[in-house]
Amino acid sequence: MSDKYDVIVIGAGPGGYVAAIKAAQLGLKTACIESWTDKEGKNRLGGTCLNVGCIPSKALLEISHKYEEASHDFAEQGIIAKEVGFDIAKMMKRKEGIVDQLTGGIGGLFKSNGVTPIYGHGKLLANRNVEVTDKDGKKKTYEAENVIIATGSRPIQIPPAPFDGTHIVDSEGALEFTEVPKRLGVIGAGVIGLELGSVWARLGAEVTVLEAVDTFLPVVDQQVAKDALKQFQKQGLNIVLGARMTGAEVKRKLVNVTYEDSKGKQEAKFDKLIVAVGRRPYTDNLLSEDSGVKLDERGFIFVDDNCKTEAPGVWAVGDVVRGPMLAHKASEEGVMVAERIAGHKPQVNYDCIPNVIYTSPEVAWVGKTEQEMKAEGEEYNVGTFPFAANGRAMAANAASGMVKIIADAKTDRIVGFHVVGPQASEIVAQGVIAMEFGSSAEDLALTCFAHPTLSESVHEAALGVAGGAIHIANRRKKK
């Protein structure tokens, strides 16, 4: 006799555990299946994000940023800090402590909301039956009125550089180094590659980032991307664009890398090599042939705009479906699906999902880039404001970067909001809120911002859309 639930969620990452909690809050009998175990074999909730992704990487980014500040930036501010050092083992212990606290917290949230955790590998069968295989190989089948698939993604491995777990690693391995590599190679100048490269560069590694495409951060507004590139290069990150990886071989504890760029064949030697070329949806042994769920040509689960699959009562959210692979996007989809199962009709506004790169300076954006507006033939106005003219940024010794606002020329509605600089991950939320409420640039220009704050740069950029910025010279309008 199988156990029956209103909702069974497969996967307890940011999409899955949030969907499970919301479903339970809406009065649905809910279970959440998770197969993740730690090195000691203990069951873990939270998925990639909490265990080996967003949270541990931000912990190391924050720690390494503080070390870099103390080592290089304190002196010019009048703070004398002699012989600043770091303890890698202690850093890792702190990172792991944060992960333990947050993953354990999900267990507490499940308990308080009435979600049943089921540990093991979940596989969707026909008619919304879910087979769970525990770590001892025992199988049990559960029935559900609705199934939400939230199995996430895993790092892509490329043939020229297969992972060996020691010298050639993925993003997870890059968070486990026990010492700072003297020379570190990173394949991929995307979000993950730049963040991980930054951590180890701040701690003293000589970092080279190899990127196959010729454009730095092509999905980012190029004015912002070029500003960020200058800052990263100034920090010592050697970013090589148009570098196509051709091979990696470990010899005498060194990784010998070969690649091709505009100058021809090149070679480089590294102590460690991080491969961060993207992630692919995790669907291994997930679907039986008669489950009714289909994959698209890229291996993602096919869903409609509301995350519904072609199988009745089966939904999918997060990295395993189309759209950006972002934890907050997965969570929003999880909430939407739970509410739709309960009979409500919410939708995710995919035009208002923020993106963040947690480097220093941070890079964050929402909506359209200037390049996209030009390609679409849309008329637009732009307002920018540099943090170099912001008193709070200057006081914080973090005056690089800018805020950029793009508005539709006819309606003045904000269609793009871009930040490179201090606290960009927090500032971008102002753009998200404005766009969610259909604000015009004038709406922000007429809003009172506290002084002195970094957010005043948003105010000035909004004023600048109409050529009315106060604290910088405005561009002369064409007659």
From TrEMBL:
Reaction(s) this enzyme catalyzes, per UniProt: N(6)-[(R)-dihydrolipoyl]-L-lysyl-[protein] + NAD(+) = N(6)-[(R)-lipoyl]-L-lysyl-[protein] + NADH + H(+)
Protein name: Dihydrolipoyl dehydrogenase
Naturally occurring in which organism (per UniProt): Marinobacter algicola DG893
Active site (catalytic residues): H451 (proton acceptor)
Disulfide bond residue pairs: C49-C54
Residue ranges occupied by any FAD/NAD(P)-binding domain in the UniProt entry: 5-334
Cofactor(s) this protein cannot do without: FAD
Residue intervals of the Pyridine nucleotide-disulphide oxidoreductase dimerisation domain: 353-462
Positions contributing to NAD(+) binding: G188, A189, G190, V191, I192, G193, L194, E195, E211, G278
Binding sites annotated in the UniProt record for FAD: K58, G122, T151, G152, S153, D319, M325, L326, A327, H328
